[in-house]
Design brief:
Blueprint lengths: L16 E3 L7 H36 L12 H29 L7 H25 L5 H7 L5 H13 L7 H23 L6 H17 L4 H12 L2 H12 L1 H26 L12 H30 L3 H32 L10 H9 L11 H15 L4 H21 L14 H4 L10 H8 L19 E9 L4 H17 L10 E9 L3 E3 L6 E3 L1 H18 L12 E9 L2 E7 L5 E7 L8 H26 L4 H13 L1 E7 L3 E2 L1 H13 L3 E11 L3 H24 L9 E5 H4 L5 H4 L6 H8 L2 H11 L3 E13 L4 H24 L1 H7 L5 H15 L1 H17 L3 H19 L4 H33 L5 H18 L11 H6 L1 H14 L28 H21 L22 H4 L18 H9 L4 E6 L3 H15 L6 H38 L1 H4 L1 E6 L5 E8 L1 H38 L9 E3 L6
Parallel strand pairs: 2-3, 2-9, 3-8, 6-14, 11-13
Antiparallel strand pairs: 1-17, 4-5, 6-7, 7-8, 9-12, 10-13, 11-12, 15-16
Helix pairs in contact: 1-2, 1-11, 1-12, 1-43, 2-3, 2-10, 2-11, 3-7, 3-10, 4-12, 4-15, 5-6, 5-8, 5-15, 6-7, 6-15, 8-9, 11-12, 12-14, 12-17, 13-14, 18-19, 20-21, 20-40, 23-43, 26-28, 27-28, 28-30, 28-36, 30-43, 31-32, 31-33, 31-36, 31-41, 32-33, 32-36, 33-36, 34-43
Length: 1235
């Protein structure tokens, strides 16, 4: 015992511990993966750039009049392929721009802007066509490699001008000057080499002149970026208007410029062929050998150019600019030069050392003996002929002197070094994670003819001043509010989210100047946190709220290593604040690294409770009050609205709300990945992460696979094709500007007054909020690398009640979006009518799922028992039809009990269905029936998808349970959710006990009198139901010990009916006992100092309560009317829903009966893929439905691959720029801490 009387139990030293570090993410494996990905991308960029350049120069060589692989009369086909390489990127840009112009807002540019852009495009496209079609086919291979590097001449000149116009000493001014001079030197050496060979040869003079002029004109291609830099320093109005037009009118300008480029290239090509005395009609007479060579070469060139551009962009986005972009592209030209020259040297050496060579022969003699006198050979390998063609270009130049070789080498080296110096600023370029393409590259267009030059010169040029190693762009600090809602979470669940908040506090210390990318503040809104003490007016915190404070003290000690030693008591936690508020109370905890957790204890007698109203509370408090108050104070001090408005807009853009549930477990990296999405893309209003359900048991296993498939395929498809329709409230990041937009936050605070409101607004509030964002034109995204974990229902009843809320809400919100398709597609640039058609098909598939399950079961009964179609379908429909009728009469608990029994029966039946499909394949000796192919394709897609998610591959084994539970999920559950649509209770966490709390007493045995009374009440209830032909939910009879579930977020739910002797307390001043009690309870852990709320904030909360959050009145008449309206809505929706299914069943059955008339005949293919001569009859409606569903899954699969690649890029960039060591904070006691 200590001096102060505290008991130290030395014998009770051990305890249960919980690790606080990240145990989910395999950081070491991910680091290795990052290195592998970086190496692979670097190799791909280098290899693709080399292939693109080599194949293009090979086309140039084939167009040379002296080469033999393509006959001299057939040269137009090679020239045509060169033209295709020039315009391929323009065609792609034209298609992309037309698509964006049709589905997004496009503005028309000014005439002066359009004229200037078209002028430069005419000069560039004309120069490129003249250079590659007219000039380069007459030059040697080395000069062709080198002359392409000269396209940096104007860029280097613009760099000099831009840096000289800036009011600072610039780091790269000297390299830019030297780059310009080196390129000019290369031009001089190139002209000297060719002109001095034969000054009288005017054709050669023309060719080299066209080559220099063409490359000079092409170098104007990247003028836009430099004009933008010059406009910033010059202050010219013309330049500013020009740059603004270039940004806002991109789509229209790209359409015009692409069309002009195609036309100019076609005109140059069409004019050059007849001027060179060639004929286009030879295209009809080229041989198969020539066609094969040309098609392969141009195919490699087009594909490698496009892929090189994409991988180069990926390298920049994943923050590997130097390793995977700059260095590989620098080396590509050297590799191409070696690729062409080395075989020439090797063949020459083999010839002069061969047995047939008796005298010493120089290169000129080799050309005369071997190269010039050969004929086309269509047999054997094509490689030797291509090597001799390349040699032919060098023979034409007649390089026999050392001085000629020196001039050629000097010219090539000067031009290559000029390119390197003109792009050396890229080594110091600051690139953000997942940098937007328009911020990386000046133009969307790449040049396939000189891919590495276009990628290097198209990259953004920043003016960097001397005296600094790197000019970093200023990072705007964003403010993130973590907002969690709590109610009856268990001790273990609250522990998870508190640990997560303390992790984030350690990851981003508030006072550390090194971390200025974001700051955060955590808020926990605790619903119904108070309970009355007996019958008195005094209130105290309930056991859930006290557990939360206790957890915070335990986690605080763990993260600060404040646990006591063997013989010393624990040190106290620093003083914290406790406040009385108009809505209840507030506890402010300053975490060890300076960030705050603010716990708002809500008293439901003072303020409206439940989750949506807690969200309304923090939206108006954090965004409406805290964000806007500071600007109001500035306005009061004399600042004008014109001055303040830009700052308000900026703060709205840079303020985020991270919505959390009370049991969410997340890592700091997950938050950072979501912040990246909103920081990079201003029109993203919300982003959600990958939600992992946790728990144990078959119910959780089913949900694990269901969540996996939903995120793997459905959410990724929504992200890629349009927008995510639901950003879960358990882990989603929202932008303040989006939430504060018109018809979003204001509409979200709407009180439900109609029956449809209860379904759409209150049963799935997160989906409704996303619906409001989509309608206002905001984009909602999904980040698969941002993981979060939340508890899933482990009980069958709880799962059914949860899905009873989600199902109707999902249906209501999607129908709302579909009904507003025209306005949404006009306002939201990410949502097209085609995407809404995709959603329409998905919702129709969901509506028809009960009928589809019945047809599936009927088919199995037909196969197993040889029943006819009518009998099998009747047997399949009878059980769900009976359950449908019972759901209108029985209590919810009884419905769920029957659903559980049916689910077990259907699980066995589903196993039989699966085996019957396999048996059908064996019996028919074919796998190419629609059902068989559908099953095989779906299975392959799921397996491949799981392989692309290696960390989650184990979830694939839960798919077996998912398959056998399909009838339960898509038949029984749908019936239950539709029939109970009028039940607006929450359904989950209704009776969860707190960890350590006593279990509720066992249900009392009913006496004979009680049983008789209940039986009589049930009989009367049933008679009333029969009389009014409706289900009366308010007459549900409860057994002793059973509590009726409170409805959620409606007039029906929010009413708290007080006991006769209990008077609700609405006076804050009389309810301060809980403060003293909490101070006494935790006095040995921390000192809770009482503080007061500022007057402005107190007035705000009173106004907020009065306008939006005042507890609802107990209006029995309105409740009764609303119950009636909910039943009417339920009856209407249920009638339409199941009538559609009935019509589908009847139509399918009719076509099956008349299969000889209406069936589609498909040739029967055996298992060895041979035609059997027989035909398989397929009912057309089912076939089209299966085909549509398979197409939908295939689209989702392709979208998943696209999304997976970009997720990998983002995650690699994150690993390269953020600390990846797991947070190590020791171990956290799992049980309550004793001192």
């Amino acid at each position: 015992m200590m001096e102060d009387g505290t008991i130290i139990r030395l014998w009770d030293d051990s305890g249960e511990v919980r690790p606080t570090e990240d145990e989910q993410t395999p950081w070491k494996v991910l680091k290795v993966l990052k290195d592998v990905v970086v190496c692979v991308v670097a190799v791909l960029v280098f290899g693709l750039a080399t292939c693109s350049k080599a194949s293009f120069l090979l086309l140039i060589t084939l167009a040379n009049e002296g080469t033999k692989t393509i006959l001299s009369d057939h040269k137009p086909v090679a020239l045509l392929c060169i033209g295709c390489s020039l315009v391929a990127s323009s065609v792609l840009l034209l298609l992309k721009s037309v698509w964006k112009a049709c589905h997004k807002t496009s503005k028309l540019p000014k005439c002066s802007t359009a004229a200037l852009v078209l002028f430069f495009e005419f000069v560039v496209s004309g120069g490129a066509a003249v250079l590659t079609i007219a000039a380069m086919p007459h030059l040697d291979i080395v000069s062709n490699v080198a002359i392409l590097n000269s396209v940096a001449v104007i860029s280097s000149l613009f760099q000099v001008i831009a840096q000289c116009s800036a009011n600072a000493r610039n780091r790269f001014l000297v390299p830019s000057i030297f780059a310009f001079l080196l390129i000019l030197l290369g031009y001089v050496l190139f002209l000297t080499l060719y002109i001095t060979k034969n000054p009288a040869d005017t054709r050669t003079v023309v060719w080299v002149g066209l080559a220099v002029g063409g490359s000079f004109f092409v170098s104007f291609n990247w003028w836009e970026g430099y004009f933008q830099l010059i406009s910033k320093s010059s202050g010219s109005v013309f330049f500013k208007n020009l740059c603004q037009d270039l940004t806002t009118c991109q789509n229209v300008l790209h359409i015009l410029s692409s069309v002009l480029r195609i036309l100019v290239t076609a005109c140059v090509l069409g004019a050059y062929v007849p001027l060179s005395k060639m004929d286009w009609f030879v295209l009809k007479s080229i041989s198969r050998f020539e066609t094969k060579v040309i098609v392969i070469t141009v195919g490699v060139q087009l594909i490698s150019s496009a892929l090189c551009h994409w991988f180069g962009l990926a390298a920049c986005k994943m923050h590997a600019l130097r390793r995977c972009f700059i260095l590989p592209l620098y080396l590509a030209s050297l590799a191409v030069l070696a690729l062409f020259v080395i075989p020439v040297v090797v063949y020459y050496e083999q010839y002069i050392k061969g047995p047939n060579t008796t005298t010493v022969i120089d290169f000129g003699g080799y050309c005369d003996a071997v190269v010039n006198n050969r004929n086309q050979s269509v047999t054997g390998s094509v490689f030797p002929q291509l090597v001799l063609d390349v040699t032919q270009t060098l023979c034409f130049l007649g390089i026999t002197k050392v001085s000629d070789i020196g001039i050629l080498t000097g010219s090539s080296a000067s031009l290559w070094l000029g390119l390197v110096l003109a792009t050396i600023h890229l080594w110091q370029l600051n690139v953000s994670r997942i940098q937007r393409t328009q911020d990386l590259f000046i133009r969307r267009l790449y040049e396939g003819a000189f891919i590495e030059q276009s990628l290097l010169l198209n990259t953004r040029f920043d003016i960097q001043t001397t005296g600094r190693k790197k000019r970093n762009r200023p990072i705007e600090t964003v403010m993130v509010y973590l907002c969690a809602t709590m109610w009856h979470e268990t001790y273990d669940e609250m522990m998870k989210i508190i640990i997560s908040m303390f992790r984030l506090d350690k990851y981003r210390p508030k006072a550390d100047p090194k971390f200025n990318d974001f700051t955060f503040e955590a808020h926990i809104y605790f619903d119904d946190a108070f309970e009355h003490i007996g019958r008195s007016e005094d209130v105290q915190l309930n056991k859930y709220a006290k557990n939360l404070v206790e957890i915070i003290t335990a986690v605080y000690r763990t993260f600060t290593n404040m646990n006591g030693t063997l013989f010393r008591r624990n040190e106290p936690i620093p003083d914290q604040k406790i406040l009385m508020t108009p809505y209840g109370g507030r506890l402010i905890i300053t975490m060890p690294y300076g960030n705050n957790i603010v716990i708002h204890f809500k008293n439901k007698d003072l303020i409206r409770h439940k989750k949506r109203w807690s969200q309304v509370m923090y939206l108006y408090y954090l965004l409406g009050f805290k964000l806007m108050t500071k600007f109001y104070e500035r306005w009061q001090k004399g600042e004008t609205e014109v001055d303040i408005r830009p700052h308000i807009k900026k703060d709205k853009q840079n303020t985020y709300i991270l919505a959390l549930d009370g049991d969410t477990d997340f890592q700091p990296s997950s938050v950072m990945l979501l912040i990246d999405r909103l920081r990079m893309y201003p029109r993203v209003g919300a982003a959600c992460g990958r939600i992992h359900p946790t728990g144990s048991g078959p119910t959780v296993w089913f949900q694990k696979f269901e969540y996996a498939v939903s995120h793997w395929l459905q959410k990724t498809a929504e992200h890629v094709l349009g927008c995510v329709l639901c950003s879960p409230g358990c882990f989603s990041l929202f932008r303040a500007a989006a939430l504060m937009d018109d018809n979003v936050m204001k509409t979200y605070a709407t009180k439900s007054t109609e029956a449809s409101h209860f379904i759409q607004y209150d049963q799935g509030e997160d989906r409704w909020l996303c619906t409001l964002l989509l309608k206002r034109g905001w984009r909602v995204e999904y980040n698969a690398a941002s993981d979060a974990y939340t508890n899933a229902p482990e009980d069958f009843k709880e799962l059914f009640n949860q899905r009873r809320r989600w199902g109707p809400s999902t249906l209501g919100n999607i129908v709302d979006l579909l009904g507003d398709t025209n306005s949404i597609s006009r306002r939201n640039t990410s949502v097209s009518k085609l995407y809404m058609l995709y959603q329409l098909f998905n919702i129709l598939s969901s509506i028809l799922s009960p009928a589809t399950i019945c047809l599936l079961i009927a088919g199995s009964l037909n196969f197993i028992f040889s029943l006819n179609s009518i009998g099998a379908l009747v047997l399949a429909v009878i059980p769900p039809a009976i359950y449908l009728g019972l759901c209108f009469k029985l209590q919810a608990n009884t419905q769920i009990l029957i659903a559980g029994i049916l689910s077990v029966m259907y699980a066995f039946l589903m196993l039989v269905v699966t085996l019957s499909i396999i048996g059908s394949m064996v019996e028919q000796q074919t796998i190419l029936t629609p059902a068989s192919m559908f099953v095989i394709v779906i299975a392959v897609i799921y397996v491949v998808t799981a392989l692309l998610h290696p960390q989650e591959f184990r979830l694939l084994f839960y798919g077996v349970l998912y398959i056998v539970c399909i009838p339960s999920a898509y038949l029984i559950l749908i019936i239950y959710s539709m029939v109970n649509m009028n039940n607006v209770s929450w359904g989950t966490r209704e009776t969860n006990p707190t960890a350590g709390a006593e279990r509720p007493a066992a249900k009392a045995q009913l006496t004979t009198a009680e049983k008789a009374k209940n039986t009589l009440q049930k009989f009367v209830s049933c008679m009333r139901c029969k009389t009014c032909n409706q289900r009366e939910d308010t007459t549900m009879i409860l057994e002793p010990g059973q509590h009726e579930l409170e409805p959620q977020n409606t007039i029906v739910e929010d009413v708290r009916v007080p006991d006769e002797e209990e008077t609700p307390n609405n006076d804050v001043s009389s309810s301060q006992r809980w403060v003293k009690e909490l101070q006494d309870l935790f006095k040995n852990h921390m000192c809770l100092k009482k503080d007061t709320l500022e007057k402005a904030e107190q007035a705000f909360f009173k106004d907020l309560q009065e306008k939006y959050l005042k507890p609802l009145d107990n209006d029995k008449e309105k409740q009764t009317q609303m119950l009636s309206d909910l039943r009417d809505l339920r009856n209407k929706v249920t009638f339409v829903f199941f009538m559609i299914n009935a019509l589908w069943l009847v139509a399918t059955l009719t076509l099956q009966i008349k299969s000889d008339i209406f069936s589609i005949r498909i040739p029967k293919i055996s298992t060895n893929l041979s035609y059997t001569g027989e035909e398989v009859l397929v009912e057309p409606i089912s076939f089209m439905f299966l085909l549509g569903f398979a197409a939908s899954i295939l689209v989702q699969f392709l979208a998943m691959i696209h999304h997976r690649v970009y997720t990998l890029i983002h995650f690699v960039a994150f690993l390269d720029t953020e600390p990846t060591e797991p947070v190590t904070g020791g171990h956290l006691p799992e049980n309550k801490v004793e001192t």
